[in-house]
Amino acid sequence: MIDVMIPGEVGKLHAVYHKSDAESAPLSVVFSGNPRMGFHMNDRISYAMFRAFMDAGFSVLRFNYRGVGDSEGGLGTTADNMMDIATVIDWIQNQNEDSDKIWLSGNQLGTWYCLQAMMRRPEVSGFVLVSPDYTASDFSFLSPRPNRGLLVQGADEDEDALAFSHYLTQILKRQAKIELETIRIKNADDKYATPAELKQLYSDVKAYVGKESTENKLL
After folding, report:
1. CA–CA separation, 156 and 145 (whole Å)
2. What is the distance, to the nearest Å, from the Cα of residue 83 to the centroid of all Cα atoms in its chain?
3. What is the DSSP string of 93-139?
4. CA gap 208, 130 in Å, rounded
């Protein structure tokens, strides 16, 4: 994996990129959570998602939004962060023109970004949501898509978070016609604080998305 600086709207965006050795490997972009709450591309959860895609045979990118870490500019709004997401998706696709599959994944607020980006990108094959931000309430942008996805959550997250994941599953099924597989990791909360919890998160994501880079395609 290598560090790259991607030209963005207000300056360069710092990213880490791994290119698969496999020809025409599927692509993935990892979205971290709300930077105003301390999330960034090198936090434990973002890294675990990145490694899961990497070890499943994907070419994968994680990055910092503007104003975070070494990414230039000031902290952005939701609309600004969505522009950064569009920039990095374009970048990885331009680097891999022979690949026709791309997956998106996100943690916390990054799950909402993930769904937003998927609706704007018909080429997206699938997605992974990790411990969605249950304060998100606007899903009017969802429309029917031929996608499947995975939601991973700690079994010990609070009641509001657990109820929200059930609500989100129903919204995706009813409004977007998307089947969402849910895995709840025993003894974990949304921080996946122990090595065992983080390893289980990594293993569950890798097992699900790994189907995309085998002969028995998920989609």
Report:
1. 31
2. 16
3. HHH-TT---EEEEEEEHHHHHHHHHHHH-TTEEEEEEEEE-TT----
4. 13
β-pairing, 27-31 with 102-108? parallel
Q: How far is CA 191 from CA 30, 136, 188, in A?
A: 17, 18, 7
Q: What is the pLDDT of residues 172-212, one digit of tens each?
A: 999 999 989 999 999 999 999 999 999 999 999 999 998 86
Give residue for tokens 């950064």: 84
Q: What is the CA 52 to chain-centroid distance, rounded? A: 11
Maximum CA extent, the chain: 44
- Cα–Cα dist 174/26, whole Å: 28
74-128: per-residue pLDDT in tens? Answer: 999 999 999 999 999 999 999 999 998 999 999 999 999 999 999 999 999 999 9
Phi and psi, residue 121, nearest 5°? -125, 95
Tokens of 141: 């942008």
CA distances from 76 to 68, 81, 117, 144, 218 (A): 9, 6, 17, 29, 35
Tell me what pLDDT residue 213 has.
Answer: 58
Tokens of 26: 């599927």
Q: Bridge-partner residues for 124, per DSSP?
A: 102
Tokens of 218: 């998920």
